[in-house]
Inverse folding.
């Protein structure tokens, strides 16, 4: 029904924003449940004509090193499903997950090493990571991998980042949008 309504309005469903792999990396049962759920979502996405699915790289454990090899191993069960369905998983940086900075996100996607796993770039999220890059610097690190974009804005305060109206914060929204256009992002 959603596909019919959207098509009737001339709207394309560009991505499904799933909480995929927003769970404990070391919880085998949770990982398997996520993969089973993904199988169902792949069918739904296909019916809606959608080729992008948003995902994550598991809850981050502050103070622990980036578990790039473990994350890459977990994604080995996912990439064949994506390939068979003709879908791409775009991984989002988020302060609560591994890959919360552009630097870490680049490391994770490179470790996964499959063109079916790319990046959802949201420069505003980088402001919520204490050690995050500026949004423009983060984009520069991830540009070749970006397949989907979210836009938000925030300001850093002594109590942490606070969301604000787009354009009123520190996300440098205009510059990355211009760079996306220059880079041929559609």
């Amino acid at each position: 029904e959603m596909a019919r309504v959207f098509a009737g309005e001339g709207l394309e469903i560009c991505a499904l924003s799933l909480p995929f792999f927003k769970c404990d990396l070391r919880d085998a049962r949770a990982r398997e449940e996520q993969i089973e759920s993904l199988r169902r979502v792949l069918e739904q996405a296909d019916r809606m004509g959608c080729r992008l699915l948003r995902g994550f790289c598991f809850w981050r454990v502050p103070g622990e090193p980036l578990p790039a090899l473990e994350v890459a191993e977990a994604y080995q069960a996912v990439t064949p499903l994506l390939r068979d369905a003709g879908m791409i998983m775009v991984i989002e940086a988020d302060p609560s997950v591994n890959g919360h900075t552009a630097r870490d996100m680049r490391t994770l996607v490179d470790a996964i090493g499959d063109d079916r796993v790319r990046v959802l770039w949201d420069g505003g999220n980088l402001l919520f990571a204490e050690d995050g890059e500026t949004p423009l610097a983060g984009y520069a690190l991830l540009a070749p991998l970006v397949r989907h974009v979210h836009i938000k804005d925030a300001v850093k305060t002594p109590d942490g980042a606070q969301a604000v109206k787009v354009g009123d914060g520190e996300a440098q929204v205009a510059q990355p949008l211009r760079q996306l256009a220059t880079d041929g992002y559609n």
Observations:
- The longest strand covers residues 16-20.
